[in-house]
């Protein structure tokens, strides 16, 4: 099931992402950059069981390697260090990040050939839509 996420994806639409970053606690300057950034996201699967999630923008490139159902340390693009667990639930990759007593959840799924990422923090939900890169 994870294989459907493999490949490069380009951001084509973003809704309420500034609200989400604000809820997570991202400062104004970093949010401005985050709102301008149009990340390319790349999922790759290693033979060792690790999945790599790479996010590339003109501002910054981050890479997060993880195994499903195992807690890992993650350095987020906005500079948070989180304890992150990624699970596969009903065909969705569910990424839970915990830091400083807070938690957020990012659910990614494939709909009509697009990668839909829903970011949840408290009562804020941001939706980011990616198309498969050629």
Molecular structure report:
- With 134 residues, this protein is mostly beta strands.
- The chain has two helices and ten strands; from the N terminus they run βααβββββββββ.
- The chain has helices at 17-24, 28-36, and strands spanning 7-15, 40-45, 51-56, 61-66, 72-75, 81-89, 92-99, 102-111, 114-121, 124-132.
- 20% of the residues are buried.
- Strands 4-3-2-1-10-9-8-7-6-5 form a ten-stranded antiparallel β-sheet.
- It has one domain (2-132): Lipocalin.
Summarize the structure.
The chain has helices at residues 17-24, 28-36; strands spanning 7-15, 40-45, 51-56, 61-66, 72-75, 81-89, 92-99, 102-111, 114-121, 124-132.
The outline comes out as globular
Instruction: Give me the strand/helix succession.
Output: EHHEEEEEEEEE
Helix content: 10-25%
Structural class: mainly beta
Largest sheet: 10 strands, antiparallel
- What is the CATH top level name? Mainly Beta
**What would CATH call the architecture?**
Beta Barrel
Strand order of the largest sheet: 4-3-2-1-10-9-8-7-6-5
Domain count: the total is: 1
Q: How many beta-strand elements?
A: 10
Contiguous runs where pLDDT drops below 50 for at least 5 residues: none
Within the CATH hierarchy, at the fold level, what is the topology?
Lipocalin
What share of the residues does DSSP label as strand, in percent?
A: over 45%
Rg result: 14 Å
Fourth-tier CATH superfamily name: Calycin beta-barrel core domain
Number of helices: 2
Overall mean pLDDT? 95
Beginning-to-end CA distance, first to last residue: 21 Å
